[in-house]
Amino acid sequence: MSPAKLTRVAFQGERGAFSEQAAVELLGEHITPVPRPTFEALFAAINDGAADLILAPIENALAGSVHRSYDLLLESNLTIVGEVVIPIVMNLIGALGAHFENVRSVESHPVALAQCERFFAKNPHIRRVVAEDTAGSVSNVVRAADPSRAAIAGLRAADVYGGELLREHLEDDRANFTRFLLLSPDAKIPRGANKLSLVMRLAHQPGSLQAALEPFAKRKINLLRIESRPIPGHPWEYRFYLDLAASTEDAKVKNALDELRKFGHEVRVLGCYVAAQTPGLESSK
C-alpha cells in the first residue's frame, strides 16, 4: 500500500473529528480528509468514488466495541491494511474571544458528555446539550459566536473551525483510547505485518468454539481479542471475530487456518497488518 497514491481518506463525522485526527496520525498531513455523515456512508465511500481508503473506529477502551463497524466490515469486500490507536482527550472549546466564566451551556456527542461527569459535577450551572458530533458541535458554537456556548471535542476541531480553547482534559478517565482500522479494496499485506483479523461462523453445537481455537492454541499463536456478533436470520447463532498476534505469511498460521477449514468452519481473513501501539502505554511498563 502506498499512502502517497491513496490520499483520500474517508471517516465518519465532520472535519476535526477524532477520526480525522487518527487518519492524520496514521498516514500524515498530506491526506485529503473525506468526512461522511453516517457509518453507512463511510463504508460506501470507496464504491461511491469519494475515497481511496476508509478509517473506521472499531473499539474504545471505555465504551467497548463499535458494533456497526464490525457488521459493515463483514458486508463489505474491504481488507484491513492497518490500524491506529489514539488517546481521546476532551477539551472545552468556545467561540473566538470566549471565556470560561461566561459559559452556560456545553454541547457535544452524548458519549463525550458522559465521559466528562466530574466536570459537570464541579460546574452545576453549566447545562449539557446533546449534539450529533463532537467536531460538529464546535462548528456550531464558533459559527454562533455566543460566548455563553461551548463544545467538548478534540483539539483538531478547534484548529479547523477557529475555536478558543477554554479548558483541557475534561475526561473522567485519561486511559481513554480508540482503535481505528484502515480499510482498503487492495488486499496486499504490508511489510512487517504481525497482526491477523478473521471472522468465523461455527457449527451450532457444543464445543465448537473450543475446537475452533485449538489450532491456534496448540501452535502457541496468541489470541488478542474475540468478539461475537449475531447472525441475521439465525436467532442465537453467532459469528466470532478474532484478532491474533500472527501473520498469514507464517507457515504455522497457514496450517492453523487450513485445519480450521477442514473442520467445516466458515473462515474469512479480514486482514493482516502491522499492530498499533497504544500511546504512552509501552513507556509506562
Please tell me the overall pLDDT: 92
CATH homologous superfamily of the largest domain, by name? Periplasmic binding protein-like II
The CATH C-level class name of the largest domain: Alpha Beta
Number of strands: 15
The CATH architecture of the largest domain: 3-Layer(aba) Sandwich
What proportion strand?
25-35%
- SSE pattern: EHEHEEHEEEHHEHEHEEEHEEHE
What does this structure look like?
The protein has helices spanning 18-27, 39-43, 67-75, 110-114, 117-122, 134-144, 155-161, 208-217, 251-262; strands spanning 8-12, 32-36, 53-60, 64-65, 79-87, 91-94, 105-108, 127-130, 149-153, 164-167, 177-184, 195-201, 223-231, 234-244, 266-273. By secondary structure, it is α/β, with parallel strands linked by helices. It folds into 3 domains: 8-88 and 176-184, D-Maltodextrin-Binding Protein, domain 2 (3-Layer(aba) Sandwich), CATH 3.40.190; 91-167, 3-Layer(aba) Sandwich (D-Maltodextrin-Binding Protein, domain 2); 195-273, Alpha-Beta Plaits. Helix 6 (134-144) runs parallel beside helix 7. The longest helix has 12 residues, at 251-262.
